[in-house]
Amino acid sequence: MIEINAPKVSTFLFRGPPMKISINSSQLKRMAMDGQCYSGMFHYALTKLQSITSNLQALTLLSTREAFNMPVSPDKLLHLRNLKIYCCGMENFDFFSLISFLKSCPALESFFLSAGPHLDVRQDSIIHGCSSAVSSHTRRHVAGFHQGNLKKVTITGFCSSKSLIELTCQILESCSSLQCLVLDTTGGYDNTGICDSTEKKAVMEALRGVEAIKKYIKGKVPSSVNLEVLEPCGQCHVPKLRKLGPC
């Protein structure tokens, strides 16, 4: 276990397996929990962080394995405004389960999700017949869920995963305050706008992601939301910005 008795601690950065943590500080507002090479960090955050700090405003989570389903009734992080989640190499992860975070953070204003990179076609791909189509009759959704403060959502490594499409559609339907939705089908790029050693398989999956956006998401974007799509160039793999909504 970790026990910290420092009443002025405002930032806590942790890397390792989920464990018992006690921090005696009412000023703790920023946390980063890196569970790389371990399992269960997302589940831990939804069930344990509220007991560590009740005033958290910014949270970054990284996980490579999630062995448990997201809790049905997660703890409330009432003051959290900025959330970043990195899913590293979890090819079969159910992205829709992350709706648990949006339900537990009513004050959330900014949500960033790194969903990739994806070097192979996901098993739940909705493109080219790998999975059933996502329609209002077949996709999952949380009835009655509403989030009234979320303004910006960014998803990098956006792919043709059905569960990722379902998560995005739920956000569009449930977040009335949403102003900007950025879907980056690449794995992220530097300030020069050049892909970092993008492999051919990753480029092909990115293009499937663009096709999925056009088919299943574009038509659901309200006129009040600015949709920006980043896609790789077919010749040199330089991501280019495509605006599919009003500026």
UniProtKB/TrEMBL annotation:
Identify the residues that the record assigns to the At1g61320/AtMIF1 LRR domain, covering every copy: 1-233
As recorded in UniProt, coiled-coil segments are none
The protein's superkingdom reads Eukaryota
Spell out the InterPro entries in the cross-references.
Answer: At1g61320/At1g61330-like, LRR_At1g61320_AtMIF1, LRR_dom_sf
A Pfam family matched by this chain, by name? LRR_At1g61320_AtMIF1
Q: What is this protein called?
A: At1g61320/AtMIF1 LRR domain-containing protein
